[in-house]
């Protein structure tokens, strides 16, 4: 990239956002009132997290997707209170609330993830119409799962629009239909190692096998591939066919749920700011690890220290 395009805009799309409720309790027994000693509500959804991280890196974005009811308003107001633009399509029902309960006495965590509202065909058309209004050079990050009523073919529709309009499409989705989207040449896709193995019908893949799978994704049309390998770091294949690999820093993992979103947002932000690929990847892995080492998204206070543990190799 040759510097930041001042006329460029970044959009994130979360079609099934959520409020995540984090609860901590000493014990969890049946048929009695269990009282908590900690609770927190967070705006969540993979694209929402990308917008939040971009803001921490002084980059503006507009959050798109579907919201419903008072829970949807909670997410919208939470983002707007942090000066993040929103342009959600409002639908019937209520945006989902997911509950994560940590039980101290047993050192166990219970995760309850709800379905969320059903999305009408009219609302889906409205979202696609919003995307069609983006202009050449804009970035669109599409992340997360699909809500009820939305066919996975919507990914193909989004891919077609972005190809026709010259929009730089970024995908972080787990559905294998992404393989059918690659002919539309998305700018960047971010699978993790498990997703990549599943797409190609394989078991656990070695580092060399992950790189080979990434090259196959490029052969199918993807320009850049960022592979998250959890505690083993990350691999990046750029559109010039160069391959970069780095380790992850050491630390106590608390919650990996948002680490991949942090990795993606930090990497993209650094690329847009015209940082080198090596620096972008190191900062991204450090930031993703920082999120994994805490209960919420990183505040970047420890990222520079974590980055010193990371070594990167160009293969």
List the helices and strands and how they pair.
Blueprint: E1 10-14, E2 18-25, E3 36-44, H1 46-56, E4 62-68, H2 69-80, E5 85-86, E6 89-91, E7 96-103, E8 108-112, H3 121-132, E9 139-143, H4 154-165, E10 168-172, H5 178-181, E11 188-189, H6 193-199, H7 207-220, E12 224-228, E13 234-237, E14 243-246, H8 259-272, H9 277-292, H10 303-307, E15 312-314
Parallel strand pairs: 1-4, 1-9, 2-7, 4-5, 4-6, 9-10, 10-11, 11-12
Antiparallel strand pairs: 2-3, 7-8, 12-13, 13-14, 14-15
Helix pairs in contact: 1-8, 3-4, 8-9
Number of strands: 15
- Percent helix: 25-40%
How much beta, percentage-wise? 15-25%
The tally of helices reads 10
Which stretches of 5+ consecutive residues score pLDDT under 50? Answer: none
Mean pLDDT: 94
End-to-end gap: 21 Å
Principal-axis shape equals globular
Largest sheet: 11 strands, mixed
Order of helices and strands: EEEHEHEEEEHEHEHEHHEEEHHHE
Structural class: alpha/beta
Whole-angstrom Rg: 19 Å
Describe this protein's structure.
- The chain has 315 residues and is an alpha/beta fold.
- Helix content is 34%, strand content 24%.
- The protein is built from ten helices and 15 strands.
- Strand 7 (96-103) and strand 8 (108-112) form a beta hairpin.
- It is globular and about 60 Å long.
- The two termini are 21 Å apart.
- The relative contact order is 0.13.
- The mean pLDDT is 94.
């Amino acid at each position: 990239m040759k510097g930041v395009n001042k006329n460029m805009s970044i959009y994130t799309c979360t079609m099934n956002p959520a409020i995540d409720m984090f609860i901590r309790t000493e014990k969890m027994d049946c048929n009695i009132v269990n009282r908590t000693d900690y609770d927190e509500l967070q705006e969540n959804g993979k694209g929402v997290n990308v917008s939040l991280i971009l803001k921490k890196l002084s980059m503006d974005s507009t959050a798109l997707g579907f919201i419903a009811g008072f829970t949807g308003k909670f997410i919208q107001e939470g983002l707007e209170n942090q000066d993040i633009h929103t342009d959600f399509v409002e639908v019937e029902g209520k945006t989902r609330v997911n509950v994560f309960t940590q039980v101290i006495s047993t050192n166990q965590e219970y995760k309850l993830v709800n379905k969320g509202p059903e999305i009408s065909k009219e609302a889906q058309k409205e979202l696609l119409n919003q995307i069609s209004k983006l202009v050449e050079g804009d970035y669109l990050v599409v992340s997360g799962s699909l809500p009820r009523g939305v066919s996975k073919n919507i990914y193909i529709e989004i891919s077609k629009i972005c190809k026709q309009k010259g929009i730089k499409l970024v995908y972080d989705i787990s559905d294998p239909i992404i393989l059918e989207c690659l002919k539309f040449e998305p700018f960047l896709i971010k699978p993790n190692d498990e997703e990549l193995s599943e797409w190609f019908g394989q078991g656990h893949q070695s580092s060399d096998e992950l790189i080979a799978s990434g090259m196959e994704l490029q052969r199918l049309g993807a320009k850049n591939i960022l592979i998250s390998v959890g505690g083993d770091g990350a691999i990046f294949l750029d559109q010039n066919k160069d391959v970069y690999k780095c380790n992850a820093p050491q630390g106590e993992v608390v919650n990996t749920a948002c680490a991949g979103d942090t990795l993606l947002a930090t990497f993209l932000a650094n690329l847009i700011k015209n940082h080198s690929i090596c620096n972008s990847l190191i900062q991204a892995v450090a930031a993703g690890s920082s999120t994994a080492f805490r209960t919420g998204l990183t505040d970047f206070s420890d990222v520079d220290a974590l980055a010193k543990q990371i070594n990167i190799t160009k293969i």
